[in-house]
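Hi F.,

I've been meaning to write this up properly since the lab meeting, where we talked about keeping a consistent format for the predictions we share between groups. The idea is simple: the sequence comes first, exactly as it goes in, then the structure tokens exactly as they come out, then a line or two of notes. No screenshots and no reformatting. I'm using this chain as the first example so we have something concrete to point to.
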Amino acid sequence: WGQGMRALVPSLMSGALFAGCFFWSRAHGLVSNRRWAWSILAFALTLGAAGLNETYTALQVAALVIAILVTLAVMQPRRWTGELQFLTAGLAGAMLGFIIMVIAPGNAVRAAFYPAPPALPALLLMAFNNCRTFFESIITSPVRALAWATSFLAGLWAASNLHLKRRNGLWLAGLVVVAAVLIFCCFVPAAYGESDAPPDRTLIIPTFLLVTATTGLGTMVWGSVPTNRQPVVLLPYAVIPAILLTAILCIHQMAGSQPEYAAYAKAWQGFHQEMLGFRRVGIPSVEISTRDLNENNWAQLNVLGDNRKFWLNQCVSDYYGVKVLSTTP
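Output, unedited:
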């Protein structure tokens, strides 16, 4: 939870702030009037966000490249200058942050724990399979599927209170394709760096993209429906119960997981007290069973092993001042 709040949520907040500044400044004509000030802000936001986590770093670069291409394709040339300068400055910050992250000295130490990066075809296939697993986990879960559908209904409801331009089917298809590409990009860094799926905590980023894109799709679909056929009166009766039902089911599911989490916490508390006892009586090294920790390890975290050089063994040994090995296979 702490890692997610430090590295993942702030990156999404930075991305939302970047998008908000872009659209707000466009609406008020500020991008063209104060180009350099807005460019510095865009550069700072993307550079800062790039250092938070690898998943968002790759996503940010891809999103800005697509944003620049869309701007060139759909906007009038006379309005390119301010918008393109803002987006290009953001891309420069994102690329600089990406380069700093790639050449960071700690990467060599971390890479020693993982296989060598796969070849490009294998990397893309691995990322695709992990992305597919992500979508399957949503579709096969009633609660997640309901939440996904509710985000679409929320988009319809939001659009019913706004005066939006009508969009044709090309815009709808474009949104779906762009969202799919960006979600796929979220799975590439883990495939490259770890030859594996990203940790579950990082799935908040593709989930955020999925919900945002689905809500946006709902607004576009509503705008494409003729005014005389829009069921404005019925929408609140569909959206509000769906939101409430989703919240109730999520709370129920979370409450049902409490015993599993409590068992893991209890196992760690027992291990903690045991290690404090060894330190109190001056025992320099021990071999203990970690069966309870391993059996209740719902998060599938790394566990202590029988190798003193393993990083987790070293960290635990340094923390308690007692060299520790696990006798549990």
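Notes:
The chain has a mean pLDDT of 87.
The first strand starts at residue 285 and ends at 288.

If this format works for you, I'll send the rest the same way.

G.
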